[in-house]
Amino acid sequence: MGAERRAAGSGARWARPSYGALASAPAPTPSLRPESLRRFASAGLPFAPARTRRPCAPRCSHPRAPGREDAEQGLLRAGAGAATSRRCRMAAEPQPSSLSYRTTGSTCLHPLSELLGIPLDQVNFVACQLVALFAAFWFRIYLRPGKTSSDVRHVVATIFGIYFVIFCFGWYSVHLFVLVLLCYAIMATASASNIHRYSFFVAMGYLTICHISRIYIFHYGILTTDFSGPLMIVTQKITTLAFQLHDGLGRRAEDLSAEQHQLAIKVKPSFLEYLSYLLNFMSVIAGPCNNFKDYVAFIEGKDIHMKLLEVNWKQKGFHSLPDPSPTGAVIHKLCITLVSLLLFLTLTKTFPVTCLVDDWFVHKASFPARLCYLYVVMQASKPKYYFAWTLADAVNNAAGFGFSGVDKNGNFCWDLLSNLNIWKIETATSFKMYLENWNIQTATWLKCVCYERVPWYPTVLTFILSALWHGVYPGYYFTFLTGILVTLAARAVRNNYRHYFLSSRPLKAVYDAGTWAVTQLAVSYTVAPFVMLAVEPTISLYKPLGVLCFGIISDLHSQLCRWDFTPFHR
């Protein structure tokens, strides 16, 4: 909308719709009421784990859009017939032997996992990110471009990244290495006119096969932080690089947009540059996706000067280029990370997503109460993503990567790789504004490989690609089907009615307040299936909410949009 894991979504600047990563994060897993369990057990879920397990403590990791999260665990346990309590309460403390403490990676932090009551796969993830943060400071201070060659910086960044992947995912990390090597062979041998096609279909095909196998064949999708997250980030980078190589080597300059011309790559990267771009320790675990030119400029120490020259630094009266420090930006983002973690450990635990399919919510709550609680639950689930994405941004900034230039007040900005704008998300007065500030880098990727490229129905095809990139859970496709209608209806309403409220400030204030409420509720309604994952819980939620809401959306769409798929960003 995707992208989101690690963007999803960044001439005239394109307003980045985070088509694929609309969804809010799921909440920790309480028990469901018996009535709900019977419905789940009778309807069935996408798969049932080999063993049931007790709910674990609140989760705090994984940057991509939801797929194997706490809501999944609660709903899967419900499908497997796990014991439940009468109310939506947190169940007993997890046992060390439970599936929550299994991981495909290193087990050396198992004692810490037991002490904190947090699943081992998540402990490994957060530990790697914290080590990466300190390694990033060391990388910037002791391996500065002026005193260290670019090759050394590439090698160190790659070795650290490979170690982190193996530590977190064990032999499953082979999937990343296989895809990287396979697509390098394509890049080295394919013609410039076809390199983007081959790379896209191979990378997306391999990712989709992994999604299907880990969920429906090997039942591996029950862990929160598995190898598919980094694989999704690597897929974004591989396809971004392939399309930019195609722009630079296979298309005429006059056929490119201003942004495509700026990012086009004229020379194929070396094997070392390719590995470093895809597997560097700053982004291999949690992303985000970035452009190859920006990454190479960072490694060579040219990125900051390039950004300053873009804003005509010397023409503004400055005679020397400064060397801005990212320390202030890193501290600011770490503070946001800490607050987000505290909110997640408290707020999310209080408003678990599994209560959305509780018997009281489905059958007894009034319609306004359902909408309000749906909004509260979706709000409570966001801090998890705020934590993971902001920490990943801080890691890149600590290494010196992420400088974007100077703002209108002359302040240095370190938001080149930022994946979200929290203030604009929480105050969004339109569906478009919400999407452009959520998972910004995934939206940038979707724009690069799909939205700008396809000749027909760019909005619809972008939604479909985002859903496929995220995975194969049915809930994803419920979300994106609804998201298409909401996007088109919201566009039509804004175009047809907004001008009536601009004549005076009071009317404008009323319009903003109303559109804010509608936007927040529409997002909550749209992303709920993304959190539920399976068909039956989605239908259970949509039964009391869906008839009216979906009817309103469809009616607005049919009357105002008339199935006009012209992209509103062009």
From TrEMBL:
GO terms for molecular function: acyltransferase activity. Keywords: Acyltransferase, Endoplasmic reticulum, Membrane, Transferase, Transmembrane, Transmembrane helix. The chain crosses the membrane at residues 123-143, 155-186, 198-222, 476-493, 514-535. Residues 1-34, 54-73 are annotated as: Disordered. Pfam families: MBOAT. GO terms for cellular component: endoplasmic reticulum membrane. It is found in: Endoplasmic reticulum membrane. Residues 8-34 have a biased composition (Low complexity). One of its GO terms (biological process) is lipid modification. It is a multi-pass membrane protein. InterPro entries: LPLAT_7/PORCN-like, MBOAT_fam. Its main location: endoplasmic reticulum. This is Lysophospholipid acyltransferase 1 isoform X2. It comes from Sapajus apella (Brown-capped capuchin).
